[in-house]
Specification:
Layout (H helix, E strand, L loop, with lengths): L10 H10 L20 H7 L12 H10 L5 E6 L4 H17 L4 E7 L3 H11 L5 E4 L3 H5 L7 E5 L5 E6 L4 H13 L2
Parallel strand pairs: 1-2, 2-3
Antiparallel strand pairs: 1-4, 4-5
Helix pairs in contact: 2-3
């Protein structure tokens, strides 16, 4: 009797099955409290972009999941657009702070109302090494209750919003706010 050949599942099916474990829980509803649970490195790696130029599309629920997964580390979220003059003004301060602090603070950009091509040029021009999310409609900014851009949100290590800033943030103010969110970690 000959060997029976068992068909292999398509590669995409394997990838979906492997990813199912990190997607098993449903995202929190808009406006609901984010449940407290420790971050999982495997799950965080799935949501936190590792390449500053990848600009993955995020919606409000996915953003909340990422912020929840980053608990344990202070987070600075900067909402920006490549066409925004004040965003260009603050970009060097954000780049310098992110380089200086390394992994002790997670910097995260949210590029809104933009094109990926222009956004990537902006990231390269200012030497940003931290990831940015792509939010074509500005829904994340709007859900955070912010108007305009740039805007910066400071989360402490527990995931609590400590402060927000609308407009271009100066190097001095950025330093003070970073000290504030790092004090509790």
């Amino acid at each position: 009797m000959g060997l029976m050949r068992v068909p292999r599942p398509p590669a995409i099916l394997i990838v979906l099955c492997l990813g199912a474990g990190s997607c098993a829980s449903s995202p929190p509803a808009a406006g609901s409290a984010i449940p407290s649970r420790p971050a999982s490195n495997a799950t965080t790696a799935a949501l936190l972009p590792v390449d500053a130029l990848s600009l993955p599309t995020f919606d409000v629920d996915r953003y909340r999941q990422l912020i929840d997964q980053l608990r344990g580390t202070p987070v600075v979220v900067n909402i920006w657009a490549s066409w925004c003059g004040p965003c260009r003004e603050e970009a060097p301060h954000l780049a310098a702070a992110a380089r200086h602090l390394g992994a002790s603070v997670q910097f995260l950009g949210v590029d809104i109302l933009d094109s990926r091509t222009s956004a990537r040029s902006f990231i390269e021009r200012y030497g940003w090494t931290y990831p940015s999310l792509f939010d074509e409609t500005g829904a994340i900014r709007d859900q955070l209750g912010l108007i305009g851009q740039p805007a910066t949100v400071f989360y402490d290590a527990t995931g609590r919003v400590v402060s927000t800033w609308s407009g271009a943030i100066s190097a001095d103010l950025l330093t003070r706010r970073l000290q504030q969110i790092r004090a509790g970690s």
